[in-house]
Amino acid sequence: MSFLDTLIQHSTQQPQKLALDFLGESAETNQAITYGELETAVQRTMQFLLAHGVQPGDRIGLQLPKCLPFIYLHLATMRLGAISLPLNPAYPLRELAYFLGDAEASLFFASAEHQREIETLHPELPNLRHIFYLDAHHPSQFAELIGESAPAILPAPPTDTDQTAMMVYTSGTTGRPKGAEITHGNLTAQIEALHEAWGWREDDVLLHVLPLFHVHGLTVALHGALNAGATAVLLPKFHPEETLELLEKYPCTLFMAVPTIHRKLLEISHAANYDLSHLRLITSGSDRLPDDVFIGFERTFGHTLLERYGMSETGMNLSNPLHGERRMGSVGLPLPGVEVRVVNPETEHPLPDNEIGEVQIRGAHVCKGYWRQPEKTASAFTAEGWLRTGDLGLRESDGYYTLKGRSKDLIISGGYNIYPPEVELVLAEHPSVFASAVIGCPDATWGERVTAVIILREGYSSTAEDIIEHCRAALASYKVPRQVIFVPEFPLNVLGKVQKVVLRQQVCHS
Ligand code: MCA
User: Fold this and answer.
1) Under CATH, to which class is 410-507 assigned?
2) What are phi and psi of 102, to 5 degrees?
3) Domain spans, the chain
4) Quick one: 480 exposed, middle or buried, by C-beta within 10 A (0-12, 13-18, 19+)?
5) 34-149+156-184 topology per CATH
6) Separation of alpha carbons 247 and 86, rounded Å
7) Residue 172 class from Cβ within 10 Å (0-12 exposed, 13-18 middle, 19+ buried)?
C-alpha cells in the first residue's frame, strides 16, 4: 500500500488517535490534531487547490516556516497527483526566483512576513498563477483561507508509482541547482524500508525538531511517524533545553537529529539530569557523527546513537541496526531493498571489501532523475542504473559500510549541504575579489565552517565584514562564509586548478 493510502487508512481506523502535536511559540499557535482531523484538513486543502485549478503534475511551491498548514499543503498536493516543492525559508529572493522559475510553479505559498519582497518577483514568473501569504503566527488564517465547504468527491491518491510526488532541489559542483524528482513509488519504498529497519510502532511518540523542507525532517521523520500511525510532536525550532525537557516529560520514544543538534544537547551543563531511558531509538544523520558525540551520548544519556546514511535523491540507504551492533564511525548496513556497491571511481569496477571507492546505490527508493535536466540525470546514473553518490567509502568484511570523505566539492555544516561553487560565483561578483576558493574548515559545533579564501584584485582592498555582507545579500544565511581569509596566492595543480585539500591544510585552524 502507498504511503498516502496508509495515511487514509489510519484516519478511518484510528480517527481519534493524536497525529500531530504542534507546540507553537505561544498558546495561540499550539495545535494538536488527530488522524481524523488531519484527513479533514487535507481534504479541505485538496478542495482549495482544486478550486484554484491545480492539475496533476503542477508544481506547488511551499516556502513556509514549520507549521501545520505546510503539512496539509504538502500532503494535499501529493494526493492530487501534483508535485510538492518544499523550499527553505532562508532562501533570499534571488535563489527563490530561480527555484520557482525553473520548476515553473503554478501556485506558491509563502510567509506573510516576506510579502513585500516576494510581490516584486511575481511579474518575472509568468507561470505562477497565484501566491498565497500565510501567517504562521495565526493558524486560524489558513483555516479561513481554505474554508469549510462540504467534502466534494475527491480523487484517490495516484496509483502510478512512477509519478513525481515531490521535488527537492540539490546543488552540484557545476551548473545550476537541480530538482530531484521523488516519485510516489520512491516515497513508499523509502518509508517501508525504514518502518521495518527501525521498528516503527503505532505507540511511538517522535519529537520532531528538524526543518520540514528537507528529506530528513520531511520524508524520514514526519512521513515515518504518519505512516506508522504514531504521534509526532513538532517544535517549530530547535531549542536544546526545551528538547531535553520534552524528550523527558512528554514522554517521547523516538528522536531524530543531526550531529550539531546532538552536540548542542550534550553541551547543556546539567544534561545528565534528564531521564531519557524511556526513549527506544535516537538516530543521527545528514552529516558524519563525530566519535566524541557518539561516546558522549552513551555516557550522558545511556543511549547508543544509531547513525544512518541518506541523500535527498534516495532518502535513506544504510543504517546501523536497531538490534545488534551500532558501530561508531560506521553508517551500518544496507536497508531492505537497497543495493549498495563500492567502485573504483575511474573504472567503476566493484572493489573488494576494505578498499575505498565511490559508493553507488540502486533500488526502488532512488529518485527518477532531475527535473528537465536529462544530461544531469544521465551523468548521475551508470548504464545499469546505479546512482553515483560522490561519497567515498568502504565495505567491511562483515557488511558494515564506513564513509571516508567525498569526491565532490561539498561542505556540510550543521546538516546542510553547501556547494562551494555557488558561493564562489557570488564572491566573483564582488569588485575587489580577483579569485576565491571556498572550503570547509573543521568546526566542533557545525562539523564544517564555510571559509572563503580570497585573492584581492591588485589595487583593491576589502575587509572580511564587507565580503560577508556582500554574500548575505545573495545567499541563504547558512551558506554565508563564517570566516574570510585573504591570501596572496593559491596552491595550484599542474592544470592550474586550486588544490583545496592543500589549501585546507594551510589555512584551517580548528
Ligand atoms: C543555522 N545557521 C547555520 C546553520 N543553521 N549556519 C551554518 N550551518 C547551519 N546548519 C546560522 C543561521 O543562518 C544564523 O546565522 C545562525 O546560525 C543562528 O540560526 P539558528 O536557526 O538560530 O540556528 P540553530 O537553531 O542553532 O540551527 C542549528 C540547527 C539547524 C538546528 C543544527 O542548522 C538545523 O536544523 N539543521 C538540520 C538541517 C537538516 O535537517 N538537514 C537535513 C538535510 P546568522 O545569525 O548569521 O543569520 S537532508 C540530508 O542531509 C540527507 C537526506 C540526510 O541524510 O538526512
Assistant:
1) alpha beta
2) -65, -40
3) 34-149+156-184, 410-507
4) buried
5) Rossmann fold (3.40.50)
6) 27
7) buried
User: How many angstroms separate the alpha carbon of residue 414 from the centre of ligand 1?
Assistant: 5
Burial class (CB in 10 A: 0-12, 13-18, 19+), 126: exposed
pLDDT at 27: 79
Domains 34-149+156-184 and 410-507 share a fold: no
Are β-strands 339-343 and 483-486 bridged in parallel, bridged antiparallel, or unpaired? unpaired
- Percentage of the chain beyond pLDDT 90 is 91
Name the nearest CA neighbour of 102 among 22, 192, 167: 167
Please state whether the peptide bond connecting residue 420 to the residue before it is cis, i.e. omega within 30 degrees of 0: no
Closest C-alpha to 210, from 305, 88, 295: 88
Using alpha carbons only, give the angle 403, 407, 413 rounded to the nearest 5 degrees.
70
Q: Whose CA is nearest to atom 27 of ligand 1?
A: 238
Which atom of ligand 1 sits closest to the CA of residue 316?
54
Distance from C-alpha of 381 to C-alpha of 509, rounded to nearest angstrom: 37
Grid cell, residue 137, equals 503566527
Q: What percent of the chain has pLDDT over 70?
A: 99
Residue range 189-214, pLDDT digits in tens: 999 999 999 999 999 999 999 999 99
d(C-alpha 150, C-alpha 182), whole Å: 32
- Specify the amino acid at residue 158: P
With a 6 Å cutoff on the Cβ, whether 477 touches ligand 1 is yes
Q: How many CB atoms lie within 10 A of CB 405?
A: 11
pLDDT interval class at 150 (50, 70, 90):
low
| Residue 11 contacts residue 151 (beta carbons within 8 Å) | no
| Ligand 1 geometric centre to CA of 8 (Å) | 33
- In tens, the pLDDT along 278-334 reads 999 999 999 999 999 999 999 999 999 999 999 999 999 999 999 999 999 999 999
Instruction: Give, for ligand 1, the residue of 238, 284, 320, 441 to mutate: max count of ligand atoms closer than 8 Å to Cβ.
Output: 238
- List CB contacts of 238: < 8 A, sequence separation 6 or more: 209, 210, 257, 261, 264
